[in-house]
Amino acid sequence: MKLYNSILFGFAFSPSLKVNILESSRIAYYLNCKLILLHVGEKTAEKSAKINQIISETEQSDDTIEVVWKEGNPETIITKACVDLKIDLLILGALQHENKFQFYVGSIARKLTRKVHCSVLLLIKPTEKRVPCKHIVVNGLNAPETPMAIEHAFYVSSLLGAQQITIVEEILPKEIQVDVEDDRSLKKANIIKQRIRHREDSRVNTIVRSLPENITKGIKVKTQSIFGKRGYSIGHYAEVVRADLLVMNAPIKTSIWDRIFPHDIEYILSDLPTDLLIVRK
Questions:
Q1: Is residue 168 domain-shared with residue 74, that is, in the same domain?
Q2: Residue 271's pLDDT is what?
Q3: Which of 94, 91, 146 has its CA nearest to residue 118?
Q4: pLDDT of residue 101
């Protein structure tokens, strides 16, 4: 089973260029993928020399890394390139914290996350030397796309050598449907919570058991039910446990109103707790 064959990293000549390319090439190496580096801008001898020098310092051989140069609108060019080059995973450098203006207008990374037809990995903490991935948190939301997100989390874990996966089941507080006013109602609310946790754990464990043994073997699996706002809760949890990677379902098509009144993954995109893998078919 191979979920990724080709990776695209869209880069700019920023101060973090070298570390982002080294991190992207390392990910491609461990996932056994071809890496395509795409720069939207003019190709010059100076830029080419700089890129070639960085590539020479990567863990991959030169024939597994391709550099593409295109001019135009970055958002349009990268979106089209993902289709034309049959990209499975788009890697982008991202801001960990967006200010209010950036949140409402939307950064290029945020826009691409919504528009492209492949999975997206947002990097907020690339390193020049490898930092092992130990703990991955994945969304366990009761949704049609969740089994795919969990499968990708295990697949990536098996290749990166992660030791633990925590599957977070975000549960809306309204599911309890009990107003806690006294000891009796508190006890009733706790019983309902326990039943919901048991139901969600059973659902998630069924998904895990259906996965190929070669990607689940040796990985410690934990389930965690959280009652709270979807998106915000899992993001906060990933930050608290210091997860190395957060894996989420791809966001649905959103309008301007979704960004003014954020929900689900929009919370995470504006305040990334760690590197974020957004899984899409």
A1: no
A2: 75
A3: 91
A4: 35
In degrees, rounded to 5, the angle at the alpha carbon of residue 58 between the alpha carbons of residues 53 and 62 is 75
> How large a percentage of the chain has pLDDT more than 70?
84
Tokens representing 69 are 């140069």
**51 in any annotated domain:** yes
Same domain, 147 and 240: yes
> Considering the domain boundaries, does residue 281 fall inside one?
no
139 and 270 fall within a common domain:
yes
d(CA 87, CA 79) in angstroms, rounded, equals 10
Return the amino acid letter for 39.
Answer: H
Domain extent at residue 37 = 1-130
Which of 76, 103, 130 is the endpoint of a domain? 130
175 burial (CB, 10 Å; 0-12 / 13-18 / 19+) is exposed
Pick 215 or 253 by higher pLDDT.
Answer: 215
Q: Please tell me the distance from the alpha carbon of residue 127 to that of residue 16, in angstroms, as a whole number.
A: 10
pLDDT at 177: 66
Contact 57, 21 (CB under 8 A): no
Q: pLDDT tens digits for 176-201?
A: 665 666 777 778 778 888 888 899 99
Query: Using 50, 70 and 90 to split pLDDT, how confident is the model at 62?
Result: low
pLDDT at 179: 65
Domain boundary among 98, 130, 162: 130
Domain count, the chain: 2
DSSP structural state of residue 237 = H
> According to the 3-state scheme, what is the secondary structure of 3-58?
CCCEEEEEECCCCCHHHHHHHHHHHHHHCCCEEEEEEECCCCHHHHHHHHHHHCCC
CB atoms within 10 A of CB 27: 24
